[in-house]
Design brief:
Layout (H helix, E strand, L loop, with lengths): L14 E5 L8 H11 L3 E5 L12 H14 L3 E5 L22 H17 L4 E3 L10 H21 L4 E3 L10 H10 L6 E6 H7 L3 H9 L3 E6 L1 E3 L2 E5 L8 H10 L5 E4 L8 H38 L4 H6 L24 H14 L4 H14 L2 H16 L6 H16 L3 H7 L2 H6 L2 H14 L9 H4 L2 H16 L8 H5 L12
Parallel strand pairs: 1-2, 1-10, 2-3, 3-4, 4-5, 5-6, 6-7, 7-10
Antiparallel strand pairs: 8-9
Helix pairs in contact: 3-4, 6-7, 7-8, 8-9, 9-11, 11-13, 12-13, 12-14, 13-15, 14-15, 15-17
């Protein structure tokens, strides 16, 4: 495979790395030069098979070789400890810090701290663990606090920073959990927080942006991957719902200067190609992220102008596309912008969400109705996504707003414009459409060939009647010798989504 170095992301304030757990079929002396050649400037080094046995007799010489490689290729490094069967060949990740007997884990983490010091690594990232059966959460929490206090002292003495990673299904599952734990430990300087942006769409109430901002100055390590909201499974960029440009933009706004490494632990079989495509996705997302600053300036100027003269709202709404990019919000996963919308759609949606906090609900409902019916397709998309934004942000809508929203959504669903129908099955539709209308909206998307990724809460609202309708639709297409959209299978095979868990 030809390797082409990608330079366009080099103005990021943080280092872009790749996790070695995604290069399990390459020795480190091969993987590190390849990653450097492609344009990566850091690695996230997972201890354990096949790269570094932290308990090997020749560990010192191994570390000296790795440090030489890192210095030669000017690669930064963080140490990861998520190896699966290092401590117990039969039980993945066991023992953890919340097991009754955890000395093996403690010894491993102490060794990881020593390795980090030898490599001049920026942190040692680790997780809490899943509460074992028969153990109360309070008991696990007490064990975790006691053990982590010892590890923090050990790390501080060696001038190594620890970084706790919240994981779906574990005792420390969210950034809020990590902050609570850190507070109980006395907010030690030696303990930071790792955020995996994929995990954020699964468990974080504030999503990726909220989790990163909540971690704030304590953010010591970042893992980059895509993920779907219903399953803890690390995916290549473009296969999930993570807004990568938003994540990179948030990191830049926070002036994060650490390592942000691609985390694809189940994809070693295609490591060189995935590393290259991942870096291209990051480069493209970074380009898109830099355009989001125009979004922010437009929103601020629009709110100021409307506060001065509310009559200018229609004109400002209509002219948004002159300032905010008319490009897909998630070009990697949705190159046409039909499923997740365009950047200008979301700018208009943000304006509606902001106006909700300052305008009378009755007046705003009338404004939305006027903006929708007097606007072109792009403006109508902005209104629909504004309704979705209100629901997603937890705003309590009064009857007038709900009724207006249902009227507008119903009109959109009667059109044959794919982008309007896709916007109409978002959060507002999921929350307020009756089941009959919602089923027909979902089936209309299938008929139009629009991915069901556009549908909010599909796995929550889908029912046997929708499955029956989908089967009838498929039968009609089959009888007419017409192709059947792949998404029909999502509706005919309940439960729609698996609940697979992947602990790293």
């Amino acid at each position: 495979m030809s390797v082409q170095k990608i330079e366009t992301y080099q103005d990021m304030p943080f280092a872009v790395g790749y996790g070695t757990n995604g290069w399990a079929d390459h020795p480190l002396p091969v993987a590190i030069p390849l990653l450097a050649e492609q344009g990566y400037t850091a690695i996230a080094l997972t201890l354990g098979h096949p790269h570094i046995d932290p308990f090997a007799e020749d560990l010192t010489s191994q570390l000296a070789e790795i440090r030489t490689l890192l210095e030669r290729y000017q690669m930064r490094v963080v140490v990861e400890t998520g190896t699966r069967f290092l401590l117990d060949p039969k039980r993945k990740h066991r023992p953890t810090l919340v097991d009754q007997e955890a000395e093996a884990r403690m010894n491993f983490l102490r060794r990881a701290i020593d390795i980090a010091r030898a490599l001049d690594a920026e942190c040692v990232s680790f997780f809490s663990g899943v509460i074992p059966e028969g153990t109360k959460s309070s008991e696990g929490w007490d064990l975790l606090v006691k053990r982590l206090a010892d590890l923090v002292r050990y790390a501080a003495e060696r001038e190594v920073r620890l970084s706790l990673e919240p994981e779906p299904g574990m005792l420390v599952e969210t950034v809020a959990d990590a902050l609570r734990l850190r507070s109980e430990l006395g907010d030690p300087d030696a303990l930071g927080i790792t955020v995996d942006i994929g995990h954020c769409v699964v468990v974080e109430p504030g999503g990726v942006q909220g989790a990163l901002q909540q971690a704030g100055a304590l953010l010591a390590n970042v893992q980059l991957d895509d993920m779907l909201a219903h399953a803890h499974e690390h995916l290549p960029f473009g296969q999930g719902i993570v807004d990568l440009p938003q994540a990179l933009s948030t990191l830049a706004e926070m002036n994060y200067q650490g390592v942000a490494a691609v985390e694809l632990p189940r994809h070693s079989w295609d490591a060189p190609a995935l590393a290259e495509s991942s870096l291209r996705a990051i480069s493209q997302a970074w380009s898109e992220a830099k355009t989001q600053s125009a979004h922010g300036r437009w929103l601020s100027d629009a709110l100021a102008a409307i506060a001065n003269d509310p009559r200018c709202l229609p004109q400002i709404f209509a002219l948004a596309g002159r300032t905010v990019a008319r490009t897909p919000i998630n070009a990697q996963a949705d190159p046409t912008g039909v499923i997740f919308g365009m950047r200008v759609d979301h700018a208009r949606a943000d304006l509606i969400a902001e106006l909700f906090t300052v305008q009378d609900p009755e007046a705003l409902a009338q404004h939305l109705r006027d903006l929708y019916y007097r606007g072109d397709s792009a403006e109508r998309r902005g209104v629909l996504r504004g309704l979705n934004k209100l629901v997603d942000s937890g705003r309590q809508l009064e009857d007038r707003m709900i009724n207006t929203g249902l009227e507008i959504t119903g009109d959109a669903l009667r059109t044959n414009e794919t982008s309007l129908v896709a916007a109409a099955v978002g959060a507002f539709g999921a929350a307020h459409l009756d089941q009959h209308a919602w089923r027909h909206a979902v089936l209309k998307l299938v008929f139009m060939g629009v991915s069901l990724r556009a549908v909010q809460d599909l796995h929550v609202r889908a029912d046997e009647e929708l499955a029956r309708m989908a089967k009838d639709f498929a039968a009609e297409r089959r009888a007419a010798n017409r192709s059947i959209p792949e998404d029909v299978a999502l509706l005919t095979e309940l439960p729609i989504y698996s609940e697979r868990s992947d602990e790293g």
